[in-house]
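pinned: reference chain
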Amino acid sequence: MKISRVLLMSSALVALGLTSSAYAAVSCGDSFATVSNPGYVSCQGPVSGNIAPGQTNVATFGGIDYALVGKSDDANAGPFQLDFPGASSGTLTFDAPIAGFFVLGLKGGPDYSLYLFDGGVNGISSLNFDTLGIMTGGGKAGPGLSHAALFGGDPVTPVPEPGTYALMLAGLGVVGFMARRRKQQA
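pinned: its structure tokens
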């Protein structure tokens, strides 16, 4: 009886391992058309979820946050010239060339992947894409594109909290006090 339980549990663990390895086999780097673009830096994903305000407002690469600018399924196709719903590959053209670092998000099926690009000084006006770096519900790569998202050409600049300014002023006050005290002692 103990042997049959051990065999049953072992086979369940093996089946679970095989199922999860099918999902783990898909990587954002599998999107050959996307990662072959000039200016490509790195990628993240696939990630389960949606790219939408209130869900994914910021993309973070190397500790730098990039704010959501717009999506291809927004009114007037957002920052893109055309929307390609259902396409598994194609070319995304921006309304204007994007200089500096920016993030392109590709959403398909239940997942999305994020791609960091450096547009340099002259900017990038279009990017080729495919959805091989995104999983479908069955754990296979390459669903149709639901929408693309653009995350800021400029990193989000953190705004200091009021407490930070208070601490800085207190520190400057202490430095001023110490300097005045030393001047009086001399």
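why pinned: Residues 11 and 17 are 10 Å apart (CA to CA). Helices lie at 2-24, 32-35, 162-185.
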